[in-house]
Amino acid sequence: LRSSTYRITNHDYTIIEDADAIVRRLEDAITIAQTLAHLHVDTGMDYRARTRAGTQWATQCGRLHAVACGHPNLRRRAAADTALTRVMERVGLDPTHRPDRSRACDPVWWRRYLHRAARPLIEQTWTQIHPTGVRWVSPDARVRRAEQDARTDQWLRETQIVDRATGEVVSLAEIAARRPQRQKAELLAIGAGICRVAAAQGQIPMLLTLTAPAHMHPTTSAGGWRRENTQWDGSTPRDMHLWIRRRWRRVTRRARRHGVRYYIRAVEPHEDGSTHWHVLAWIPAGETQWLESALREIYEADDPVGDPDRYRYGVKIDSIDGGVEGAIAYVSKTVAYISKDVEPAEMAEAVAKAEWASTWRIRRFQTSHGRI
Fold first, then answer.
1. Is-contact 6 13, C-beta < 8 A?
2. Quick one: which H or E segment has residue 160?
C-alpha cells in the first residue's frame, strides 16, 4: 500500500492518492470505533438508545458500588471496587472522590456523558473516513440536531408556567420564540459597549484572523476545490481551538504592556469544520506594527515544517472602515449568526455552525472582559 509509479505498455500511471495517509485515517477510525464500543455506543444509536445505555451503565455501577461497600465477603468487595475503579477511570471520574462515585451511579450523568462523548467521536469518524463529505458538520450531526430540536419544541409546547397568585399561564414555547432576539440584543449590547469605551480612549479597531497550521486541516482548497489533505495529522476542531487559544494568551500578556486591553473574539468553522478565530482588537495608535510582528512571532513558533510562507494566510490583519460604527456593524453580523437571528436562506448554515460549536464544546463569542 505505497504510492508508486507503474510502467504499463510504455505509459506511466501514478497513484495520486497517498495510500499511507488512507491507511492511517482508517486505523484512526477503527480506534475511534473501538472507543465507542467500550462504552456500548455505536455511531448508529440515537438519543433514546444512548439514554438506555446510560441507564444500564448506572445500574451496573450502582450494583458494583453496593457490593464494594456492604458485601460480607472481602474478596468480592475488593473485586467489585477494582471493577468500579476501572469504569470510573475510563470515563474520567476520580475513584477516590465520593461525589464522583455518586455520579457513576446516576443515570442522568451517564446519559449526558455518553451524549457528550459520542458526538465528537462520531464527527471524528466522519472526518477520518470522508473528510470532503463534511460541510461544517457531518450529515449525522445535521439529523441529530433536527431530532433534538424537534424533542425540545415538543417539550416547550407541552410545558407551561402558572403564576399561582394571579392565575396567569405562560407557554414556554412563546418565551423560547423570543430567545434569539434577546440573545442578539444582549451580545450586541456587550460588544457595542466595549467598542464605544475603546473608541473614547482614542484606540482604533483592527480585525485579526487567526488560523491553525495547514497540517491540522483535514482538507485543502488549493486549486479552487476541496480535496483531502494528505499531511493532516488527525487534529480535531477542538485541538485547533486549543492550539490558537494557548498562543492567544501569550499575545494578550504582551499586549497589555502596549495598551491593548479591549477585544472581541468570535470562533467560526471553515467549511470542512476547521477552527479559525476572528478577533476585533482595539489598538492604540502607533502599535499596529508591533502587534503584527508579535502575532507572527508567536503563531509561527514551534513550526515543525519550517516553511516561511506557511502563515501567509494563517495570520491576517485588516483595518475596519467606519471606526466605531464599522466595528459595531461587524459585531452585529457576528452575533446574528450566533443567535440564529438570520434570514431564512442563511438559517441552515447558522444551525450547522451552532451544532458544530455544541459538538466540540467551543464558546463562539467572548470578550476581553470574560474568560476564554
1. yes
2. strand 160-162
Q: Would you give the DSSP letter of residue 216?
A: G
Residue 138 CB: number of other CB atoms within 10 A? 25
Q: Among residues 289, 321, 317, 283, which one has the least CA distance to residue 199? A: 283
What is the rounded CA–CA span in Å between residue 261 and residue 263? 7
Is residue 184 a contact partner of residue 341, using CB atoms and an 8 Å limit?
yes
Q: What is the Cα–Cα distance from 174 to 340, expressed in whole angstroms?
A: 17
Instruction: Find how far residue 328's CA is from the centre of its chain.
Output: 25
Contact 108, 86 (CB under 8 A): no
pLDDT in tens, the chain (372 residues): 333 333 333 333 333 345 565 566 566 666 655 666 666 665 556 677 777 878 888 888 888 888 888 778 788 888 888 888 888 887 788 888 888 888 888 888 888 887 777 788 788 878 877 788 788 888 888 888 888 888 888 988 888 888 888 888 888 888 888 888 888 888 888 888 888 888 888 888 888 888 888 888 888 876 667 788 888 888 899 999 999 999 898 888 888 888 888 888 999 998 888 999 999 888 887 777 788 788 888 887 555 555 555 555 578 888 887 777 888 888 888 888 888 888 888 888 888 888 899 889 899 888 887 654
User: CB within 8 A of 175, min separation 6: which ones?
Assistant: none
Rounded CA separation 307/300 (Å): 9
CA-based nearest residue to 207, from 193, 195, 222: 195
